[in-house]
Structures are given as C-alpha cells and as structure tokens.
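Posting this for the archive.
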Amino acid sequence: MIKLYKVAEHCFSIEAEKDFPLWPKMEECYGPFEVHNSNSDNRFTIIVGEYTANRDEMQLVYSNMENVKDGFIAFSIFNDRDNGYYFELRQPLSSEVNALLSLNRDFSKATIKLSGKIEEQWYSFNAAVNLCYMFSTVNYGTLLMHSSAVEYKGRAYLFLGKSGTGKSTHSRMWLNALEDVTLMNDDHPVVRVWGDGNIIVYGSPWSGKTRCYKNIQAPLGGIIRIIRAPHNKAVRLSPIQSYASVMTSSTGLTWDKRFADNRDATLQQIISHIPCWNMECLPNEEAAIVCADTVTKA
C-alpha cells in the first residue's frame, strides 16, 4: 500500500503493508497533507520492511546520544560507503534501537525497519520521516524551523527560543489578546524560499506536543526570538544578529557539506528579506500586544 503526501509543495510517499499498525496514527497528523495524485516530483519514498546492515563496515559521522533532550529522538548516523547513510533511532536514555533507517546518497529513497512497542515505533518512525523530509528538500530553499508559528493579518510570524523560554506561550498570548490569529504549527513549521523571491511558511505534520496539523500557508512577515525579561520590548536585530538567531533554530545536520551549503544559502535569503527581532518579554498578553504592534509595522 502506498500513500502520497505533500508538505510545502514537496511530495513524498510511504510504502507499507495494508495492515501497517502505524497507518491509524498517521491519519491525524499526516492525513491533512495526503494527496491522491500530484504533478510534482516525488522527493523521497520510505519503504517499511526488513533491513539488515553490517555496521562494522560503516563510519560514524554524527550522534546526539550524549546531549539528546527530553522529547527528542536519539539517533546515530553512519556513512555506508556503498549505499548512502544508515541511521539508528532510539528513545532518549534507552539502548534499544527502535528503527533502522537506510537512506541513499541523494536522499530520495529510504528503507526502515521498526521494532519495540507501538508508541516507540511511532516516535521513531515520525522522526525518520522528518529527517528524510529535511534532507531531501534543503536543496529547494526549504527549512524546517524549530519554532511556533502564527498567522496574523495574512502574514506568518515565527517565534524562536530555547526549550522552555516560552515560544508556545507567546503564541497562545497572541491567540488570546489579538483577533484573527491562527496557530499554524507549534514545533516545526516549514519555511520555503521560492525562485520568485516569495518566502512562505507552511504548516507541517510535525507539531510537537501540540496537535496542530494544518495544511495552510502564509507569507513570512517576521521572525521573533523570545527572551524572558522583566519588561516587554521588541528589539530589531542587525543582519549578523539575525543570521545567528535564525540559524540556531533551523533544523539541520552539517555533517554533509551539500546540506550545510544549501541551508546556509536559504538562511541568507531569509535574513536579507525578513525583519528579525528579539522580544524581551513577560509571559502575559501585554507582551503579545507590544510584539504584534512592533513587528507588523516593520
């Protein structure tokens, strides 16, 4: 059974048996993005099935095992000289591998083998799809941003920040304090820079703990980093400050030079066209009003 999905105008497919136990779980978050036919090229295909590999013949190129955060999947990446890349995904603080993922050199085809409890399989599978999407679309001016995104007056605004600084809280404050605000995504919206110069934010199937899986889009109006402070004040960033702010919240692994170069080019396009801010604020509705009043007038 094959299902086709489209996120930020990028198509990808999942191939698995009809009784694949994760199909029902996919319906909520991937369902809004399902298409039955498309004129677009298929960026990648993930085939769910058996997979074996001789890890002894591979070179470790990246691992987040030492600093994985709560709520994130731990994974290790190996360079498989003949086939591409090999991933091991597991739950945080666990030594048990829940997913083996093989991804070819041009990131267009993957095979995944799942094990463990259904919930563990789901988290690892969802992370694997996210990784495949990230790798296969970065060459097309596309970035997944670790942020919360809202639409207001026809434009999208991204709220960045370290975990626990209040990205989601600030989005809720906009929803509470302002009219006609829509939450687009609360963890990984997609930003795409098009050839005509338009920069568009899209909802995605990856929204963290918030169930917000909306197939919607809006032009990017501003990027705001949330910083806890005893006052509410929005400060416009310089180009260099803007690059540093946006770069640290753009998902990506720079072990592959192609990936690093393409991500950098997209970031440069974004900061040259979009105003970026630090929002020094309290977790209250006044902060939302001050922020919106400032950034929407830029």
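The chain is about 25% helix and 35% strand. The first strand starts at residue 2 and ends at 7.
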